[in-house]
Amino acid sequence: MAKLAQRIEGFLEDYFQLGIPEIHITDIIEIIIIAFFLYQFLKWIKSTRAWMLFRGILIIVVFFLVAALLQMSTILWLGSRLFSVALVALVVVFQPELRKALEQLGRKNLFGFFSFNFGRSIDQRFSDKTLSEMVRGSYEMGAVKTGALIVIEGDVQLMDYVRTGIPVDALVTRQLLINIFEKNTPLHDGAIIVRGDRVEAATCYLPLSDNMDLSKDLGTRHRAALGISEVSDATTIIVSEETGMVSVTKEGRLYHDLTPDELTDFLKDAQLPFGRKDEEEGDLETKENKKGGAS
Fold first, then answer.
1. SS3 state of residue 203
2. How far is the C-alpha of 88 from the C-alpha of 92, rounded, in Å?
3. What is the per-residue pLDDT for 201?
4. pLDDT per residue as tens digits for the range 122-145
5. Terminal C-alpha separation, the chain
6. Which residues, 6+ apart, have CB-to-CB distance to 182 below 8 Å?
7. Domains of the chain: which residue ranges?
8. What contacts 12, CB < 8 A, 6 or more positions away?
9. 3-state secondary structure of 66
10. Residue 4, SS3?
11. Among 135, 184, 214, 274, which has the minimal tally of Cβ within 10 Å of its Cβ?
12. DSSP-assigned letter for residue 175
């Protein structure tokens, strides 16, 4: 084996002036780490709208490589001058995706013994009674086609959006939810934000999603629910005023026409203080494929 390695090394040195570098265990570990992060980066960017932009950047890079091979000095000069500006432009263009990726990284509990959660330790964000009241209230409103928008706060606090509404600070009950969203009442317009077992505020304004793939049949209520899920880890319940169907948005995705059991499953995920566990992600993917309507 040693003789074969020497012959290969001699061949490379004679014909290509190349040698076989010494490889240590730290080099192997470094390669594995780099490969892992590169794979995670490509996996993340493939699941976002940044994928098309990334493909466009690759085309520009290939163009400049061809220019370098063909000695096109003017194009290379322009490229060198635009490089620093392009770095700033990339940060601006990818700002929503970068922000979402960093938020997801911050929510991951990478080491069980080392956590950045400085808040009080809790087993659940809200009680089972609150969960039951939200499910019952949602479908009672759906039965009479009363539109509703219920935002359930996660790890990312929504104080900026709470301030846009009217303070309520009341325990979540189905009667309260029905009264708030009853047509022609002062608080029915906009969203309510639920923190723990209490409704923090009503008539809150939410950011609208700019997702162009969202069906045109869906109105402002669904687009607002999708928008808040894109900038936070909140779970949002939407009751359609036109059809009475109950939907949920989470992590930038919209899940249409849920049954009470499916809505309960989503709310049980929202109860977890550190977000959805990795082994439960497959369950949501199964639900998405089953509904065939995730956006």
1. strand
2. 6
3. 94
4. 578 899 999 999 999 999 999 999
5. 56
6. 146, 188
7. 17-106, 128-276+283-291
8. 18, 19, 20
9. helix
10. helix
11. 184
12. H
